[in-house]
Specification:
The chain has 432 residues and is of the alpha+beta class. 67% of the residues lie in helices and 10% in strands. It is built from 16 helices and seven strands. A five-stranded mixed sheet has the order 3-4-5-7-6, with helices on one face. The chain has a two-stranded antiparallel sheet with strand order 1-2. It is flat. The two termini are 25 Å apart.
Length: 432
């Protein structure tokens, strides 16, 4: 499993973006507060393992070792959740399935034979020295930042106080707010350094967590294979559902209208000589029905793959969908180049279906659509100020959109609390 750290991504971001990013402050809190966890893990494991191993000869240690193993696996589960919360690192569970039944001895043997159990132990033992290093780095940087930025305030409130700074053998006396003002920009510089350091150290910690607490390469490949099989199955199901929809629309719409046109033409031909006026009315009725059938077929073709999407791209196609919506829709498309046709098509239909649902169910007064590129992903977001409560239930429209996204290994998430607002987000992988 890849445990490398891409630090270049942090340096491509400006300090202001890091300052506003909640992940920076969650990482900072973790690095400061995780040291007690590491200390507790180390002390508890040292005591429990020593007692358990020392009493193996009287069989009490076997039970103690089994309970200790369960405890450290539980601590590893907690660490996986903390890694996701603090660093945004998703660490899947690497454990093998335990034997079925109530035989505790068989289950304990399976746990002991699982390499992930012992990797958990290594991580928990390393958490103590790693926590010390992270705590020291964090304390030095944040203490220096706070001290420098607040130095003029400290000098002002402590009348008669002073600070002596020695540089190159010369002493500089700082005894007033004016003389300490240069410390403020210096403190801001240390703050920027601290934010970058927090993100880099956090990424390194996340990499260690992925390597020791996550599945190995073989397990990851198996999980990936299972995911691709599920995505393929969902894609096939979505295609089959789309085929049935097209057949239903053809049968219930254009086919019925064309049948009515044929009947009107037959009746008009029968009355052409005996009742020309009635025949003329039937011809006009058939002509109107033919135009309706053409419009129905045009709408059906637009539902399959709109011509405007092929000719002018995603911006124009989504703008056309937004223009037909019954409420104001703000559209923001930020794509430097056109993505592949499959990605464009799925993004278009996600927006189209989502806006249709907003118009039908959300009782919203406004909506917004944002499509942007995020490295190798196309991110599609549809939001509205409606009543919320949308769910991707099996067989529903949102579940169908999720199946479409899964067909290219994409992810669709729905955040729609009761009372709103609703945000539907699709992350679609894309090779540019």
């Amino acid at each position: 499993m890849n445990g490398t750290v891409d630090t270049s991504a942090f340096f491509r971001r400006g300090p202001l973006r890091l300052l506003k990013d909640p992940l920076t402050w969650r990482s900072a809190a973790f690095l400061l507060l995780h040291f007690p966890f590491g200390l507790a893990y180390f002390v508890a494991l040292a005591v429990l393992l020593s007692v358990s191993v020392g009493t193996l000869v009287i069989w009490v240690g076997v039970l103690g070792l089994a309970l200790t193993m369960v405890l450290w696996r539980g601590a590893a589960v907690l660490e996986r959740r903390l890694a996701r919360l603090a660093f945004g690192v998703d660490v899947p569970s690497p454990y093998r399935a335990l034997p079925a039944g109530n035989n505790l001895l068989r289950k304990w043997k399976a746990m002991a034979a699982d390499p992930a159990t012992w990797k958990d132990l290594v991580y928990l033992l390393l958490a103590f020295p790693i926590g010390i290093a992270e705590f020291v780095i964090s304390m030095v940087l944040w203490t220096a930042t706070i001290s420098l930025v607040t130095m003029p305030i400290w000098i002002t409130q402590n009348r008669g106080g002073y600070i002596v700074v020695t540089l190159a053998g010369h002493d500089f006396w700082l005894d007033g707010p004016v003389s300490t003002l240069p410390a403020v920009p210096l403190g801001i510089g240390v703050l920027v350094l601290a934010m970058y350091a927090v993100r880099i150290v956090g990424a390194a910690h996340g990499a260690i967590a992925r390597y020791l607490l996550g599945p190995n390469e073989t397990q990851a490949l198996r999980a990936r294979t299972a995911q691709l099989r599920a995505s393929r199955a969902r894609g096939v199901d979505a295609a089959e559902a789309e085929r049935r929809r097209i057949e239903r629309d053809l049968h219930d719409g254009a086919q019925q209208q064309l049948l009515a046109v044929a009947m009107d033409l037959g009746r008009a031909r029968a009355k052409l000589e005996t009742d020309p006026v009635a025949a003329q009315e039937l011809l006009q009725q058939a002509h109107a029905g033919a135009k309706e059938a053409i419009a129905e077929l045009r709408n059906l073709a637009r539902g399959i793959y709109p011509a405007i999407l092929t000719d002018r791209g995603l911006d124009a196609a989504i703008s056309a969908v937004a223009a037909r919506a019954p409420m104001p829709v703000e559209v923001e498309i930020d794509l430097p180049t056109r993505p592949p046709a499959a990605v464009e098509s799925i993004a278009y239909f996600i927006v189209s279906e989502a806006l249709t649902n907003v118009a039908k169910y959300a009782r919203a007064t406004q909506a917004a659509v944002r499509v942007a590129r995020d490295q190798t992903w196309v991110v599609v977001e549809i939001s509205d100020n409606g009543v919320g409560g949308a769910e991707a239930t099996p067989g529903g429209g949102l579940a169908g959109l999720a199946d479409r996204a899964a067909g290219i290994d994409g992810i669709l998430t729905v955040n729609s609390p009761r009372g709103g607002p609703t945000v539907i987000r699709a992350d679609l992988p894309c090779v540019w």
